[in-house]
Write a structure and sequence with these properties.
alpha+beta; about 160 residues; globular; two-stranded antiparallel ribbon; Arc Repressor Mutant, subunit A
Length: about 160
């Protein structure tokens, strides 16, 4: 019995946008930092207190997120103290929210304490839980990953 090679093997992965996204977001602490900013924790020291991220690691993560235009530094000053910065999501950063909700959903399903998840995402208008769903551009719901097929996109390049 012979097996044929997967079709994707004919294409290069050099310009893979998943790989590029992970170069920005794939470091261990990055989504912890994003979680804090999404939850309204925007100041460096507040992030350190809440997460225990080492100072240099937090500095590096925030610098990367600023350099990649995921967050922007906004100055503020507490009276009597030196000027500082807080971090606010850009439109590019806000576009990560479905990914954060999907990541939390997976963690809730497989890693939550017996009491349940520590945070829930609710629709502001009605209070119902927020979920992330797969769908196609024709408006169809996609029931699961087995109903999706990867195919070469317009930027696909054959391997040399």
């Amino acid at each position: 019995m012979t097996t044929s090679a997967p079709p994707a093997l004919a294409y290069s992965a050099d310009n893979c946008t998943i790989g590029r996204a992970l170069a920005v977001l794939g470091e261990r602490w990055t989504f912890v930092v994003l979680r804090e900013v999404f939850n309204g924790i925007r100041r460096f020291e507040d992030m350190r207190v809440r997460t225990s991220i080492p100072k240099q690691v937090l500095t590096d993560r925030l610098r990367t997120l600023v350099d990649q235009d995921v967050v922007v530094r906004v100055p503020y000053q507490v009276p009597g103290q030196r000027p500082r910065h807080e971090y606010r999501l850009t439109d590019k950063g806000l576009d990560l929210y479905p990914l954060l909700v999907a990541l939390a959903d997976w963690g809730d399903r497989y890693l939550a304490d017996p009491d349940g998840p520590p945070i829930e995402f609710a629709h502001r208008d009605c209070g119902a839980p927020v979920v992330v769903r797969l769908g196609c551009t024709a408006g169809h719901d996609v029931d699961g990953p087995r109903d999706v097929t990867p195919r070469p996109g317009p930027g696909a390049r054959l391997r040399d």
